[in-house]
């Protein structure tokens, strides 16, 4: 069974940084592209970033230049480094697995999801 577990969320002031981790178990991360989504209260789940098996990154316009996605296949983990955080970045962040990043903004393209980790940006 494919399992993903997110960690690293928390409360941070505007302008601060957090690094989220997405660790896989039950499967080899090498075989999958991994996407990050976020969902704020009352809003739809929004695609943030996706990294291909070949380590090519994709970013939404909202986070490009501030967030960096990376992967360490030896640790079966994908990271999302989030810098210059703003209140509008607040939400529950989820990672998910799919074969490619072609339609990476679309939640239904993903096979497996983690349980999410809360990120709150507030002074």
Question: What tags apply to this protein structure?
Answer:
mainly beta; seven-stranded mixed beta sheet; four-stranded antiparallel beta sheet
SS class: mainly beta
- N- and C-termini, Cα separation: 40 Å
The radius of gyration computed from the alpha-carbon positions, rounded to a whole number of angstroms, is 13 Å
Instruction: Report helical residue fraction.
Output: under 10%
Query: Poorly predicted ranges (pLDDT <50, ≥5 residues)?
Result: none
Which series of helices and strands comes N to C? EEEEEEEEEEE
> Biggest sheet: strands, sense, closure?
7 strands, mixed
User: How many strands in all?
Assistant: 11
Mean pLDDT: 95
Which percent band covers the strand fraction?
over 45%
Overall geometry: globular
Number of helical segments?
0
Summarize the structure.
This protein is mainly beta.
Describe it for me?
The chain is an all-beta fold. The chain is 0% helix and 48% strand. Strands 2, 4, 5, 6, 9, 10 and 11 form a seven-stranded mixed beta sheet that branches. Strands 1-3-8-7 form a four-stranded antiparallel beta sheet, with no helix packed on it. A hairpin with a 6-residue loop joins strand 4 (33-39) and strand 5.
List the helices and strands and how they pair.
Elements (H helix, E strand, L loop, with lengths): L2 E5 L2 E3 L5 E8 L7 E7 L6 E6 L5 E3 L7 E6 L4 E6 L8 E8 L13 E2 L3 E5 L2
Parallel strand pairs: 2-11
Antiparallel strand pairs: 1-3, 3-8, 4-5, 4-9, 5-6, 7-8, 9-10, 9-11
